Amino acid sequence: QEIVSGESEEESSGVNLMEFSDEILLHILSYVPCTDLVLNVRRTCRKLAMLCLDKSLTHTVLLQKDYKVNKDKVKQLMRDIGKEIYQLNMAGCYWLPSSTIDHVTRCKNLVRLNLSGCHVTSLRLSKMLSTLQHLRSLAIDVNPGFDASQLSSECKATLSRVSELKQTLYTPSYGVVPCCTSLEKLLLYFEILDRSREGFMLSGQLMVGESNVPHYQNLRVFYARLAPGYVNQEVVRLYLAVLSDRTPENLHAFLISAPGSFAETGATKNLLDSMARNVRLDALQLPKAWINGSGLLQHLKFNNPFYFSFSRCTLSGGHLIQRVINGGKDLKSLTSLNLSGCVHCLAPESLFRKAEDDIDSSILESLVVSCCNLRHLNLSAAHHHSSESIGNHLCQLLSRLKHLLSLALPVCSITDVAANVEKTPTASNLVPQTFGRKVRIGIQTFPRNLADQKIESSVFWALMGSLRFLETLEIIGSSFSSAMPRNEPAIRNSLPPCVRAQSVGDSEVAAISQLTYLQSLTLAQLPNILTGSGLINVGLQCQHLRTLSLANLGMMGKVVYMSALMDMLKHCKCLRDLRLEQPYFCAGAQFFQALSHCSSLQRLCIVSRSGTLQSDAVMSFMANCLEVIMCHMFMGESLTVCKNLQQSIVRSFQADRPALNVVIFPLLHEDLTEVIRDVPMRHLDEITLFKSRVAEEPPNLWW
Question: pTM here?
Fold first, then answer.
């Protein structure tokens, strides 16, 4: 204040932050991490000292992506405002020692607590929960060694009042579920591996002393997500066994996400029959084997559904319209729909249909008209080919969904029919997809900047122009598979792209630049990327872009878009996550120099078969980009080179970056799966592993 009063009249005529109303200042301060507010900002002046402790700022404390927070900061934070905290989210704080959890006991008024991804032992959990008598929502991990018998009676009393539980299982166990007798929402994430580190096969049987059964009588939401593996399937069946005996009357959301084959049993059939008789659902997701060939959907009753997922099911469009959308009736309540891998969902029947046949536009039109309020739609991992009918292209029909926030499409669905009908790829228009030495062929010259070359007649360009508020977009080749799957060795061979997708390239990427509010972009297996010039437009126009994932663009034997990518990165000031998957990628000095312009970058993942890296360039990049806390590189370098670089990064930067997680490893090494199992689940699930994330879960599944 003394400084301000001493300013000249000319200088003081500018806007002084402290002159804003308290309401405006509180809104500004809400964007500042709570640790900074309490430990730094409030020490600057009396007014900010008062505002930083306002209930609107201390009621909810979010530490889940505050990568700079450490044990001492958490201790001081809990000491200063612990009694004012009602919601505490520490999800994914894997770098904090387990002793940090002891300080949560200061938060006597906690109602919601998220400790997913944190190191918590049975004894520490018991001690902490014993003091949190107001707790109603809890998220924890159950790791090997968890022992429910160590939970005190006071802890169990707290758990008996918990109505929302999210539990991630890394070992066969009921966890704390039997203690939660008032459960209304149960979220289960099964991450149990089939083999121990020593190579022994694990069993899905629960440990001794876990004979207590869950209490589901008040359950409204049941959600289970399974990682690959038979043990996860065995354990989830134990959880479902109680549901099959007596289905909760108030159940309105039943969701099971299971990869691969998850066979239906007598118990699960009884459960589904009971649900068909006794409940009306608002959200549904089932394993494909439970839906395929059954008349289940015909008998299930729905109230005001907001989420459906029929991912990888053989559900035909005829069944989708008749049994789910009730013959095209009003479904304005539906906001999220996942039809990923549902290859026949836009065809009237699937008996004699080939996956590559044209879609029935009338089915998609019925879907668009009935579900006019869709905000999240996933149509990826399928061949959705439009016919020649004018005005009935998939892109034209989807342009009516004005409320879309996230969209996932296969590459072959966005191509103009007129440009592809009866057109066989030849040497003059088909980009080679094989590895090794390339034969030089004539290709069209493409301008570096496509800003003046808007192909406004393109149906995809028109679609992007109509979805101005889209925040997440995924364009993924229908035959694309990542070189780094979950629990298996790296994939060495990839399938060729769909013939209909051969013309999709730079101009389509340029069309994406119309999405001013785009925050997340995924592009995979776009064959006709020749220079990558469209990426520059995206970098210039999509200034809110935070997540970028590029995989197998253009010819596979050469990174043809490297120059354009480096130009693009210079404009991505808000980019936080970057994932690149491309054979023969050279992570050299020029690339990392361009990447250094991304001042907000936090996580980097590069997956490249036969790819190379320059250790000095990586070290220089890490030194310049102070926000980077995750560096994953799976390349073609030797194990020695990878280990030396990883050790150098950890040794140089770990002290200043407590959350630093570095994995540099040969992509085709036989021990890759053992290395991946040590990656924190937050990074593994959000960026390291490739997958479609649109409508993967119901919106607002957890707070």
Answer: 0.92
